Amino acid sequence: MLGSGHSFSEIAGTSGVLLSLDDLPPVFEVASDRRSVRVGAATRLGHLAEHLHQHGLALHTMPSLPHISVAGACLTATHGSGDRAGSLASAVKSMEVVRADGSLDPLSGHIEGHVVSLGMLGVVTSLELHVLPTYDVEQVVHENMPWPAFTDHFDDVFASAHSVSAFTDWRDRLDVWVKRRTDEPAADLSPLGAVPADGPRHPLPGQSPQNCTPQLGVAGPWHERLPHFRAGFNPSIGAELQSEYFVAREHAREAVLRLRALGDALATALRVSEIRTVEADLWWLSPFHRRASTAFHFTWAPDADAVRVAVRLIERTLAPLGARPHWGKVFATSPEARYPRWNDFRALAATTDPHGKFGNAWLNRFFR
After folding, report:
1. CA 333, chain centre distance (Å)
2. In the chain, how many domains are there?
3. Is 358 domain-assigned?
4. What confidence tens digit (pLDDT) does each residue in 256-314 have?
5. CB atoms near residue 7 (< 10 Å)
6. 159 domain residue, yes or no
7. Distance of alpha carbon 311 from alpha carbon 7, whole angstroms
8. Is residue 346, in this structure, part of any structural domain at all?
9. Is 303 exposed, middle or buried (0-12, 13-18, 19+ CB in 10 A)?
10. Residue 111 C-beta-side C-alpha neighbours within 13 Å
11. Chain Cα centroid distance, residue 309
12. How many other CB atoms sit within 10 Å of the CB of residue 210?
């Protein structure tokens, strides 16, 4: 199965048959109680967000990019940031799946093994997502926070607003992007030494901020502030590779210190790194399975050899903290030991797709 194609691992495969749902009729059905919406699997998040906002509704979170598909995001546990915000997958209430035998299977209730399924259990044609009333957000970039203040007050920094991200090169640069709901108290990071930016910023130094969502404390709809990049514009920088690792929240400070010690070693390959927080969920293959987590994202130069070296260094460094990788990013070591329900998922995949129709070489390496 192919979502929007925004993957840096080989989760969708590089050969054989790729199946896209882009030509299916659009689906957008708001429940009578206005607490959920059913949406077509191929719908891009940016389009979904616009429709929700027009109906006075919202998602609890958004990832950095609104360009990706709803199903692709949910089935890989793609996420935004927020101490109280789970991944997009945590919003899934029910789903419809075409199984390997061609039957249509409506799923609700006990779906812990089915949501973050990496496309292995069938063709997800629609999902029902929990929604909430729409809200406004203002975004302020705080630059040059001192590292000691950040590590000593990590919890305070990430509790300061609805969504908080920190961008760093793991050496000198440390900027904190604060996205505050306007119905919540204002954040004040000045006691920690950070200075509000005097103009719009791009997460990657030296890049034009014209593709980024509005900053400087100008309030606007949730879907026009929570992503870092605007729908309809090129995201990030384009030619790049990405990795991301998740550690349990209680290990956040130690993880920061360990990665900080790698700053010089990562400099050749690294363009920018982002730190976020994500709430726990119940899905078996979610990196946030039963543990609130801190996310460490790496945007790399498009140099596969240099990235391979950097990734192995990071994985060795974070291994004692039980780091789990993002399924759609570059990683090297099998995460099997990090997931208590790993074998349960393998058994579920063998039952629902006994002949491996929805597998590929990359997925089969882990689960067949």
Report:
1. 20
2. 1
3. yes
4. 999 999 999 999 999 999 999 999 999 999 999 999 999 999 999 999 999 999 999 99
5. 19
6. no
7. 16
8. yes
9. middle
10. 23
11. 23
12. 10
